[in-house]
Structures are given as structure tokens and as C-alpha cells.
Amino acid sequence: MTSTPSPDPKKMHLATALLHAGGPDGGVTPAATMVPVYQTSAFQQESAERLEGIFHNTQPGYCYTRVGNPTVSSFEHRMAAVEGGVGALACASGMAATFNAIMGLCQAGDELVASSCLYGGTIELFEDLERMGVTVRRVNEVTPAELEGAVTDRTRLVFAETISNPRLGVLDVPAIAAWCHERRLPLVVDNTVASPYLCRPLELGADIVVESTSKYVNGGGNAISGIIVDSGRFSWDVERYPALAKWRKMGPFALLARLRNGLWRDTGACLAPWTAFLNCVGLETLDVRMERACDNALKLATWLRDSGLVSEVGYPGLPDAPDHELAARQFGGRYGALMTFRAGSRERAFKFVNSVRYAYRASNIGDVKTLVLHPDSTIFADNTPDERMLAGVFEDSIRVSVGIEDAGDLIDDFRQALS
Asked: Which pTM does this prediction carry?
């Protein structure tokens, strides 16, 4: 019996690609409709020669789960296909993905330029990078004008979020990618809040995508993980990126090869097989979950804006949002499932969080359940006042990760909590 070739992900709509891109299980075990969980630390080989070949990358295969595992490979293949990259590297968390993507390119003495409007944990990671000798130059807005004043001859990359968390600013990916490429700089985009449902930055010109797949990709709030997806298009100058010199022969896979055989492997940033399996399951329903969550978020944001119970609502889907037109053009008429509002005071914000009945008080986003959080006292607790202000975090701010409940029930819950 002849095997049927896997269909081209570029010819599929997203809902189909989520189920079929890369084969039923990413091409690992073609007979399975879902990849098995290879919950093992190591893999036996038929000979010493075979094991030697795997270690020296002259033969395909698996030897140790920290370096590679079939279940994890399945998730990597599927994410690469969905995001439109040449390959992917699954990590233990979104923070591990961000760290590896940056440090795979930078060394002491190098610089990167990043938005000041980022997730608080990423800002704290950048402080650690500074201690390692990598200078982080921050810009208030990721625009060509601001970037121009921050880039130097030591700059190695530009980093930004597709939709910033929690300020909800929208990155003009094509414009910034074009600006970076004119200066021979890669654009690294954190696509966590948008997810591949709203935006595939590599298709818009970005070079590398990092993502906390703990969020919308997983969807069930049951696993911590991250991903690095490389477009394979950036031409790496080994004089500027000496860590890639050894892997130049790998062409478009140079960065992924450098990480898999070096930094990622050596820091133990690997993903557990069971977590990879949970992500494969979650990925298949990303389209239907996000459609419902985005619809709910727009209805809830519109009601909050008109309710008179809050002072300010942040959501790109509202016509008066600063980046509404950009979001509409770049995201195809959907605006995400994350929103914010200001309750009027810290005390009123806490009272709201304590009064909701359906929403969970939790620091995650991307769950099928609605989650509420007071960012100022939690995920931004270790950031400076200036960092909080730039990120759109105030003492009365509430962040809402909208789930897939009935929108009417969510509105009723928020009404009673705010009243």
C-alpha cells in the first residue's frame, strides 16, 4: 500500500491546518491519529554505531528525551507548520523560549532593542540579560522613529509582542519587519496573546516567533510550555552572530541547530512528553475556542464601555481603541480574548476580583474559563512604577482573559461584581 503524502499547510485554512498540518501526529508514527506519549528518559539502539550516529547528527533517531523525543517532535512539527516556519523548538516554558531565542543570537557586549510595553516577566528577564552583559535598549513605542534612535552597531535583534500584555498595543509587523531587514536585523515576535489564530507573524515578515504555548495553544490551563519557530529566511552574518558559525552549513536551520545542539540542550529547557501531548490535543481546537473567546471579549468590552461602571476599557476591537484600524487589518476582523479596564480605585478593583462568580482569580491567560487579575499587585509587583505605567498597569487596572462561557452570563457576573 502506498502512503498518501501530507497536504501542504499553505493550501489549508487554519481550522484544517490545526488538525492536519504535518500529518496526523506530526509525521512521527503515521498509523496513529494522535501521537502516543513516549514517556521515557532514554531510547535503546540496536548498536553502538547507531547510537554514535545519532549523537553526531549523521543518523536520525532519539537517544535522550532532554535532546529529543517523538511526542515533543510531533508538537514541534505541528507548530512549525501552523506558524509557517521551517522548524520549531519546544521549550519548558514561554520564558525559556524567549531566553533561548535571544541568547542563541547574543553574547556579552551585544545589544537588543525591545518595547517597554511588555509582559512583566519578560521585563524581569531582560534585567537578568543585562547582568549577563547583554544591553537592552527600550523604546516606548515600536515605531521606525523610536527604533532609529535606539539601534547601534552592537544591536543584534528587535523584540516585540504582537499584542502587548496587558496594554494591548498592536505591533505593525510588516512595517517593523521591513525596517529591521533594511538594517540587517532580525525581528523576534512574541505571539502569545494573538496566537496563530489571529496572526502568523512569519507570514507578515517577522523572522522568529516565540510563544508561551501554555496559553491559547494549550487552551485547557493544564501545562506550562513554550515554542520557538524560525522562518528560515534570515541570512545570518557569522561575524555579527559568531555562535552560528559552526552551524552555517545548516542553512535555514542554523539557529535551530545551534540551539538544539547547544544552549537549549545544555540549559535543559526541554519540554516533557506528556506536556507536548496535552498541547497537541489543545492545538486542534484553537480555532473554535478562539472564535468563541474573541466574540465574547468584544461583547463584554462593549458592554463595559457603555455600562458607566468603569472609567476606561482597553480592547483593540473597540472602534475608539488607538490601534483598532491596524488590528482590523492585521487580524482579519478578530481582536483577541484579552482585555483590561480600570475600576476607579485599588479598593474597588480588589472588590471586583473578590466578587466575581464565574471568573477565576488566576494569573494565567488563554484558558477556556474566564480569568481575572489585578496586575499591579501580582505579575507586575516587582516592576518599577515607570515600567508599570509604560505597560498600561495602574493601581485600579483589571486584566480579563475572556473564556468560552455564555457571553450573557459573563456580563451578568461582571455587572453584579461591579455593582
From this structure: 0.94
- Predicted confidence (pLDDT) per residue in 104-154, tens digit: 999 999 999 999 888 888 989 999 999 999 999 999 999 999 999 999 999
Q: Determine the Cα–Cα distance for residues 189 and 388; give it in Å rounded to an integer.
A: 21
Q: Give the separation between CA 160 and CA 83, rounded to whole angstroms.
A: 17
Kindly state the percentage of the chain with pLDDT values over 90.
80
Biggest distance spanned by C-alpha atoms of the chain: 72
Instruction: For 175-212, write each residue's pLDDT tens digit.
Output: 999 999 999 999 999 999 999 999 999 999 999 999 99
Q: Cell digits for 325?
A: 484600524
Cell triple for 395? 493601581
What is the average pLDDT across 329-356?
97
Instruction: Report the chain's terminal Cα–Cα distance, integer Å.
Output: 67
